[in-house]
Amino acid sequence: MTAPADNVSVDDHVLTLNPIVGVSLDDLATSTAQVLQAAVLQPTVAAQHLLQFNSELIRILFGRSEYEPSPKDRRFADAQFTDNPIYSRVAKSWLAWQASVGKWVEAVGFEGEDLERARFVASLATDALAPTNFLFGNPSALRRAFETRGASLTTGFKNLVHDLRYNHGMPSQVDKSAFKVGQNVANTPGAVIHRDEIVELIQYQPHTDMQNSRPLLIVPPQINKYYIYDMSPEKSMVKYLSEQGFQVFVVSWRNPVAEHRAWGLDDYVNALDKAIDVTRDVTGADAVNMVGACAGGITLAVALGYLAGKDELDKVASLTLMVNVLQPASSDSVMGLFTNDKTIESARKRSAKAGVLDGNDTARIFNWMRPNDLIWNYVVSNYLHGESPPAFDILYWNNDTTRLPARLHSDFLDVFKDNLLTKQGALSINDVPIDLNRVTVPTFVTGGTTDHITPWQACYRTTQILGGDVTYVLSTAGHIQSLINPPTSSKRKFYANPDTPPSAEDWLKDAKQHQGSWWPYWTEWLNGIHAEQTKAPTEFGNEQYAELAPAPGTYVFE
Dihedrals φ, ψ of 211, to 5°? Predict the structure, then answer.
């Protein structure tokens, strides 16, 4: 398996929090129209910057320009942009134009988030017209075409036609043919022991003779398939936990279609409540350790608030929330710039009309949030260079998108818009008011230092919302790389601090650095809560909940 294209992080690709927002290309178009309107209404400002740009072009022509590509900008890494006078001037001219557009946006008079949106729209335009996105402006592509006698261009054209037909017109990010669910991903032995219309519950085969008597139940995000927790064996959290002596169960959400439009947060919480009861029944445990990430963590937190409201929280022994935000803010990500009452209501109407929020639509808008990494990078490699997209398991998982039922999407929008999880009783499930301060179980929360989807400071806010003892751990990685962080990775570090002051920055000041993965630290924390052992089962399920299908089940293929 190869990594993504050079210098592109796995975490640049991940769309897991996007469905909560539901921003569309129409929202980007609206912001673009506002920028263009400003140009029409203030022609003098535009003309002034155009004259300055023309003056810079003259300096470039005579070799007197000070513009130079950043060494970190891999688009201009080819030596021709330095050594060749033509390509050097092409690069300088584009950089001058980019700077001129940026200065014009600053001078128009946008303020606050309007200014940030205008900057973003301007960057979309300038990045789209970077010379490296075109054959004659890309020396490496021309060189490759010459060396292959045009074969690279023929292959690139075939790649383009394939993507137009089979990938919704977007450049492919991964070679999907290299993976098969249940064979080289999601292949840890297990069995489905419970199924209802929303979930399948998978029990995994033990790897030790004795196991912790309290099982782990993992809740994945609804917008992606569950097997992010069970990738290839060397990356599988499920396999690792089993090898550490834990009984592991995972929820596999069904991929809804339009007829399931009425499934809401109540239904998903009910499904989790049932999964907890089945897990306890099968294992004979008094309580279950619950684990969730990203949007799945939101559902899980609400479920625990529901159990607390019913005085049934004793069914849960601990809570782990990974790269998860319970108190979102518009400043947390680029997506937040396009999130306001109007866009939220538009998103609600779109999914209500379709019955679902489609993951493919979600992926497209997410790609436009980071176009250099997620679009133009692959335009160059797939089409201009004629290369095949990489065969990388996590990118395969990320492209295996799912849908959200309209009502659940609407419920998520309410949570996001009004910060319902921070307000006592503002959200109710089955007429039970939710108060996360009543969730008093020991809690373990993680964040990633370079996570741009759920920034670590936003993840830290959870420590101030829940009512029990909270342990926060910060990994030196991004969104997925901090989650899928097996101990075999020696490059990782993490920070831990038993105290949880109100400020994330204050927490970090007194945090201690540790070498390696946080997974062993987490399993030690779990065993510190409860270390009692029980003999590992020899069969899946029990008389009431018998094996229905081998893992990875059936819902994962829908």
Answer: -135, 155
Q: What pLDDT, in 10s, does the model give residues 135-161?
A: 999 999 999 999 999 999 999 999 999
* Helical (H) or strand (E) element with 321: strand 316-322
The region, left, alpha or beta by phi > 0 then psi within -120 to 50, assigned to residue 22 is: left
Residue 553 · residue 250 · CB < 8 Å: no
Residue 192, SS3? strand
243, 205 in Cβ contact below 8 A? no
Q: Which of 105, 294, 365, 413 is catalytic?
A: 294
Token readout for 270 is 């009910």
Q: Render pLDDT for 12-28 as a digit per residue (tens, 0 to 9).
A: 444 444 445 555 566 66
Q: CA 375, CA 368: separation in Å to the nearest integer?
A: 7
Q: Look up residue 46 and give its two tokens.
A: 């535009």
Q: In 355-461, which residue ranges form alpha helices assigned H by DSSP? A: 359-369, 371, 377-378, 393-399, 406-418, 456-460
pTM here? 0.86
Secondary-structure percent of the chain, ordered helix, strand, coil, rounded to 5 = 50, 15, 35
Is the Cβ–Cβ distance between 221 and 535 less than 8 Å?
no
What domains appear along the chain, each with residue ranges and CATH number?
42-133 (no CATH), 190-338+408-557 (3.40.50.1820)
d(Cα 200, Cα 460) in Å, to the nearest integer? 31
Residue 294 bears catalytic tag: yes
Sign of torsion over alpha carbons 494, 500, 505, 510: negative
The percentage of residues in the chain with a pLDDT greater than 90, rounded to a whole number, is 68
